[in-house]
């Protein structure tokens, strides 16, 4: 596995606090995660702390319990910090503890077992389902808090006698820390989130760069904006990650200049930014000889110029999120997005030389009926037909389709989740409708297999790929 690093590896010193950042999914998915990278940078700067990473082992891995760089067992870490970005990886988090010989229930861990800290969007929304497995849960952004946590740990270790109970008692006093052993199950509701950080003071960007990721190319990522000011009713970002904060032009330019020393490709992450500012940022990267990439986009914030720039830079795919049918978009707060506008974007992106198109859908939304699944299938076929009619028969159409996990703090918090077998039934119905429409449907739970499939065929006019976690639960 080849990887470029912006920070050199700290020399190993067994007396340092070993703080391991763990991602409960494979390296391909985990490396691009900026939360791990920004926290690594924070830890790296603290004296007497040795940061390292751990990613989910693969079946053929010979060292399933070893951390990435220092190759010591995860069990020997002082603190293991898990970032849990989506619900689908919760079981991996528990599997990692188990395979590494760390009792997965917090109540069964001893004084010499690592302290397990959990953070990330799933935790910030609702740590209660995984409360029995972690010692500390970070509610909110962890960049500032991590230093206080480490200092507290250092102080408790200083005398050579570490008492976990005393340590956790002190941690429970820190804003943003939910400690189930101290606060209990019901105490969670009283814990305030950490204060939102100033992203210009400590911007989030790549420090590890590798082409062995889902991007398939060496990419330097920059978080151009954190949070979102929209309030889509199902979404955690619009309610729990506020206010939205944007990088200043000068900070952004400095980061691009650093990034271009390591990679020609700069990927920007942002939600709901004005297209004019995005265009300015993309032009800056282009002017410096870089190639730009952007993630999935809100339709009303996507200009023709943005699509043209990313097309010229060689981005292969543009993804938008219709989420559901036009009727249900009114229910989720995205009523402004019309199918005809999406078809227009398909046309512009195909004409700008972007072959692949992605659509994200959620099933199991409140008030969804079988008619909605029919309409989703019809619209998917309409997009495929549009691509074909534009001569874009080599373009891949990828559908991300997952079920709704109603999130606390959002207006949908009391909505019912459909059962896994119901979700599976709706998925099968959708597939059969697409198949009857004359399309070959490839269903995948792993985006990494894409390259393998691509070798088999090069004309995709009759192919629709669905990426989903439905059926894996
Ligand atoms: S779905 Fe997108 S636009 Fe809507 S609140 Fe979430 S991040 Fe913002």
From TrEMBL:
InterPro entries (UniProt xref): Aldolase_TIM (IPR013785), Elp3/MiaA/NifB-like_rSAM (IPR006638), Radical_SAM_N2 (IPR045784), rSAM (IPR007197), rSAM_sf (IPR058240)
UniProt cross-references to PANTHER family, sorted A to Z: RADICAL SAM DOMAIN PROTEIN, SLL1084 PROTEIN
SUPFAM superfamilies listed in its UniProt record: Radical SAM enzymes (SSF102114)
Gene source species: Koleobacter methoxysyntrophicus
SMART domains in the cross-refs: Elp3
Keywords carried by this UniProt record: Iron, Iron-sulfur, Metal-binding, S-adenosyl-L-methionine
Top-level taxon of origin: Bacteria
A GO molecular-function annotation: metal ion binding
Domain Radical SAM core: 214-440
Descriptive protein name: Radical SAM core domain-containing protein
